[in-house]
Amino acid sequence: MSERDNLDQNLPLPAPRSPRALDERIRAYARERAPQKGHWYHSRWAAGLATAGVAGVAVLLALQSPEWSPQPALYDSPPQREATAGGGSAQRAEPATAAAASPEWQRSVEEPLLSAGKPAAPAPAADEAASPGLPASKAAAQARGEYYEREAAAALGAMQEAGIAAEALRDGAAGRRRELVAACLALLQQGDAAGAARCYQALRDTCRDCALPPTLEEAREALRAGAADDD
Amino acid sequence: MRQLIHRLQSDEALMLAYQRGDVAAFDSLYRRHKDGLFAFLYRSCPRQAVVEELAQEAWEGVVDAAARYQPDARFRTWLYRIAHNRLVDFWRRRDNRMDNLEGVPEPVAPGDDATQLQRTVMSAVAALPGEQRDALLLQEQGFSLGDIAAITGAERETVKSRLRYARRQLRERLGDEL
Question: Nearest CA of chain A to the CA of B116: how many Å?
């Protein structure tokens, strides 16, 4: 049921439309501030920063590896430098070197570097990847799966809620029906097989008299055959 | 085809698409809700200039929060919550009084096509206490009790009682007009 229907059934209140000038301002703002545009991690520097971050971590790990024997000039981690600059004595440099090797210090250096090189990801994936005990790749895959599932369910819900399919199918327009089947197929092409199946099922449920084939694959074949007939 | 897919997608899916940089998804989302939101704001505060400002602020709020948007709740409820917050701030600045709008340089009359009955009902709605008016106008937009509670930050039972009082007052004021 649309908002307009509700209003007609309830109080007689005015329903002015959003002015065109306002629409243009808001759309322009949305274009200007579209999420991917404004973020540094989508810029051309992203790849360079990511590489630098990984390289930095690799150098740090190599410096702390016992098998690796560095030249004295290179074996000069930041805390050691600070200690040397502060006093220059061997007693003061020693605890600083121990601190450099400690896991806490390593994490404190690595985390900003890693996060600096991290690409944009949907919030749920980031949250799950950060959760302890869950491997990042598995969490990302899980988040991706959940995202597609949500999107498919949302598409289905919207279609039913808006009554688009019902409206389109009731008028018996075969071209419109083909478009809707094609929209379900587009979901399939996007890799969302479950969403595509549910989309198609919603079409069939909405119009039981339309003689739509039982599966989306068969509908695709029928579309192809129809197109061939049209030719 | 892309527009058609957008039409089939839910608000939440469109918002996630915009989050990934699909500006056309925002256009679809905006087209879907712009008039409803504008009407809601207009009924709450019948001044064209103020409503335009509030609507713009609300949509800008959506755009600014897009990067961290998570589809935990319905988009429409979220949109109206943002708009409602802007509205509350606006009324707070004017001490919650409709007559304090006198300083706003816009005509009071509703749109040109508003009927006399619409004007009468608008006057009666304007006379309601702010919280009752908000609940009533949100219900007129098709929101459920739970949605109104989420938008206004009130308990469900509180919303129910606000609606009951609002309807009763309107009946008393309008009588046979409705």
Answer: 10
Q: Which is more confident, A97 or B9?
A: B9
CA dist B168 and B178 (Å) reads 13
- Both tokens assigned to B34: 């712009």
In chain A, helix, strand, coil percent, each to 5? 75, 0, 25
Q: A58 or A184: which carries more pLDDT confidence?
A: A184
Residue pLDDT, tens place only, B140-158: 999 999 999 999 999 999 9
Summarize pLDDT for A53-82 with one digit per residue, the tens: 666 666 666 666 555 444 444 433 443 333
Give dist(CA B76, CA A66) in Å, integer: 58
CB-count burial class (<10 Å; 0-12, 13-18, 19+) for A220: middle
A150: left (phi over 0), alpha (psi -120 to 50) or beta: alpha
Would an 8 Å CB–CB cutoff place A101 in contact with chain B? Answer: no
Q: Is A124 on the interface with B (CB under 8 A)?
A: yes
| Residue A107 neighbours by CB distance under 10 Å | 10
Query: What is the CATH architecture assignment of B1-108?
Result: Orthogonal Bundle (1.10)
pLDDT tens-digit readout, B39-56: 999 999 888 899 999 999
What fold characterizes domain B109-178? Arc Repressor Mutant, subunit A (1.10.10)
Contact A34 B110 (CB under 8 A): no
Domain ranges of chain A: 42-119, 136-230
Contact between B9 and A158 using a beta-carbon 8 Å cutoff: yes
Select the residue of A17, A25, A183 nearest B5 (Cβ to Cβ): A183
The ipTM estimated for the assembled molecules is 0.87
